[in-house]
# Entry
Amino acid sequence: MGKIFSPSELERGLVPREGNHMIAAEIIVGKLDDASAVTRPIAIQIYGSVAEGCPTIGSDVDLLVIYDEARQEPTLGIVMNAVDCAEKTTQVPVEASVVGYNQALRGDFRFDPFYLRHLHHAEKRDPIYLSDLQ
# Structure
C-alpha cells in the first residue's frame, strides 16, 4: 500500500534512503531464517514492489508469514521483532499479513478480494524472497 510522509517526517529526514527497502527485506528474512525451530515460521514471502525490485520512496515492504498455530506466541514475537527492527533501522514501513497454517489451508482467513488477487499475481511473478522455512 505504501506510506505518505508528513511534512514533519520530511523535514526531519525520516524517510527511506535509496536501497533501504531491500535492506529492510533482508533484515526480516535474515531474522526469520535465523530463528530457532520453536519460533521459525513455516513460510515467508516478500512480494510487491520490493520483490519486483522497483520500490519508490513511499513503498512499504509487503510480507506474508504462515506460522504453526501450536507455536503461535513465540513465532508472532519473533515476527514482530523482525518487523520492528527493519522499520527502525531503515525507516521503511512493513505491511505484514500473518496467517496460521491450518487457517491458510482452509482458506477461511478474510482478506479483501483485491488483496488476494494481488497476492496471487505476486506469487506468479516468483518474488526474489520466497522461503520455505520448515
Summary: Strands lie at 43-47, 61-67, 94-100, 129-132. The CA atoms of residues 67 and 85 lie 20 Å apart. Residues 72-90 form the longest helix (19 residues). The helical segments are 7-11, 20-34, 49-52, 72-90, 101-106, 113-124.
